[in-house]
Amino acid sequence: MKTVQFILGFLIGDVCFATNRTRLFQDIIDNHDARVAPFDTALDSLPLTLIFFLMSLRQVNEKDQAISLSLWTYMGWQDSRLSWTPSSYGGIKRLITTSKQVWTPSTVCLFNEINEDKCFTDERLVSITSFGWATYATTRETVTQCAIDISMYPFDLHNCTLYYGNLFHDNDFLEFNLDFSMISTNYFIQNEEWDLINTDIRETFYVSLNVTIRQVHVDVIFKRRPIYVLLSVFLPVVMLSVLNLFCFILPIESGEKMGTSMAIFLTFAVFLTIINDSMPKSDKTPYFTVYLVTQLLISGLTVILESIVIYIHFKEKEKPTEPTGKIFPLDLTETIGATSTRNSEMCKRFKISGNTLDKISMISIIIIDLISVISFLALTS
Q1: Once rounded to an integer, what is the mean pLDDT over residues 37-56?
Q2: Distance CA 288, CA 46 (A)
Q3: Which fold has domain 228-321+331-380?
Q4: For residue 366, with 0-12 CB atoms within 10 Å meaning exposed, 13-18 middle and 19 or more buried, which class applies?
């Protein structure tokens, strides 16, 4: 018997609660005109709170100068027409409906959005509390324009800004409430290539044709993770530049100097062609690209220097042909012989051997390599 009474009581309570909710929808939602904004005069303004939850930084497109973000966006405002007394409706303090049934600030738009859905016009869920506070919630994969400078690649740092504002800026009924607006990264998932450094939200004012335009700017600051580029690109290039120096250490008589220097040069050319596919495409040339091209030129210079070294080495081994007989009188022959001996001795004083030129070339290449590496690191630090 007690069980039957409990079931009947539960069903009656549930029916009454459903009846209260039905009456609440009929009294508040059905009598609400979704076309009319919650203010009466032109001087009225509606404080609007914006809350963003940054979920992920999906992609950074350097070529198209755009970034892709995953965002949860909440817009909150006060609408006194949607308030009620909870005790009159069974203690109900919150309703969930859709943006089609109540007025929403659908003129708020993301101005630098690339896709077509710039404004919050989609039908989404709206939460309404008993004191008239309405919250519009939506999620979107936004692709926004952003000026991306990759000159410091792979140590580049970027600040991309999302521009939120009222589409009809000459109608000043919306007022962004920055005291309660915020951007949160509590649910942010780190990207494999980029590190999120900081986020910020601020209000900006523009004056155009005597009209003040208000916008909310959301800054997203992120930095590239350089370790992959350093290990897969920078370190192999440094190793190839070190191999260039070993070309000058090889003995000239081994016959391997030209073959080794040419092999390294061709390896540089092929390697840089492969690297070029993975480099970010932009109209601004990164300092890293300049460094890679410099190393390719140094490798080509090594081939030229080795050619000169080999030529001088084997040229100095050639012996001059001795005269077979005396054509001139004795005194004239002796005079010419003495003069030739003096000229030969003077030439030997200023003559550079192949081994000496090899050492000078090696020192020069080391200096050029150090200058290029230090310049690259100084410019990107």
Answers
A1: 84
A2: 51
A3: Methane Monooxygenase Hydroxylase; Chain G, domain 1 (1.20.58)
A4: middle
Q: Where are the domains of the chain?
A: 15-225, 228-321+331-380
Cis status of the peptide bond prior to 154, with omega within 30 of 0: yes
Of 54-58, 165-169, 199-203, 367-371, give the lowest mean pLDDT range. Answer: 165-169
Report the DSSP pairing between strands 108-110 and 211-224: unpaired
CATH of 15-225, one of 3.30.1360.30, 2.70.170.10, 3.90.1010.10, 3.40.50.970: 2.70.170.10
Helix, strand, coil % over all residues of the chain, rounded to 5: 40, 25, 30
Sign of CA dihedral 280, 281, 287, 289: positive
| pLDDT for the residue numbered 196 | 94
Region of residue 325 (left: phi > 0; alpha: psi -120 to 50; beta: else): beta
SS3 assignment, position 13: helix
Structure tokens, 178: 């920055």
Least confident range of 44-58, 114-128, 322-336, 354-368: 322-336
The whole model's pTM is what? Answer: 0.76
Please return the burial class of 76, using the count of CB atoms within 10 Å of its CB with bins 0-12, 13-18 and 19+: buried
| CA distance to 65, 142, 147, 158, per residue, from 60 (Å) | 8, 12, 11, 10
Rounded-to-integer distance, Cα 227 and Cα 96, Å: 48
CA 62 to chain CA mean position, Å: 7
Contacts of 374 (CB under 8 A, 6+ apart): none
